[in-house]
Amino acid sequence: MKTKGNCSFCGNEYSGSGITRHLNNHLKAIQLSKGKAYFHLRIQGKYDPIYWLNLLVEQKTSFEELDRFLRKIWLECCGHLSAFEIDGLSRGWGWIDEEEEDEIMYSKLSKYLDEGTTFSHTYDFGTSTELKGKVQGAFVLPTLSKEDGPIKILARNEAPLFVCFACKKEVATEICTACYYEADEPYFCENCMEKHAETCEGEEYFLPLVNSPRTGVCGYDG
Ligand SMILES: [Zn+2]
Ligand SMILES: [Zn+2]
Ligand SMILES: [Zn+2]
Ligand SMILES: [Zn+2]
Hints:
Layout: E1 4-6, E2 13-15, H1 19-29, E3 36-45, E4 52-58, H2 63-75, E5 82-86, H3 98-105, H4 109-112, E6 118-123, E7 129-141, E8 151-156, E9 174-176, E10 187-188, H5 190-199, E11 206-208
Antiparallel strand pairs: 1-2, 3-4, 3-7, 4-8, 5-6, 6-7, 9-10, 9-11
């Protein structure tokens, strides 16, 4: 399964794999000799790359601000811990001490990132959602509008559509978390959800299907 998304500059639709280069072309065309320094970041689900974001982020933004942004758009359920790992810094999760984690979290992006740098982000160290990211380009550009703040969404995947597991007809809107680990896609339409709940663990195990790599995990409901 693949997802598409629209370019925020021209509105045209592109595949998740084609849009990054397309956005870089727009960004190159509006580059200035003086202005603010930005990174073009591509961030996606590590195991479910159908969920992706292309972001324009001021280089002086902190990792903590980026973390807050990712929580808001994709992740936050009950205030779990999170951390970034920068590839090329030889620190594994088990070895990072809190001081080092904080040191990354409260640094500016430009301290650790440059064109081509890859990184990962983990939200919740129990039922984790893992993201991976890459700096797709560095640009000097006119200042973003105030509404955008330091992070602007250049493109985002359209919500993927899943067909109901039971009737195989309707678009699914709910996910049964009781079967999540046994069935591949325990996604149900509203009609089939009730029937399924009777034979499964009950309605309290249902969560809404949402456009996020954390859909169906912990209590995440969008
Ligand atoms: Zn475009
Ligand atoms: Zn949670
Ligand atoms: Zn159905
Ligand atoms: Zn179930």
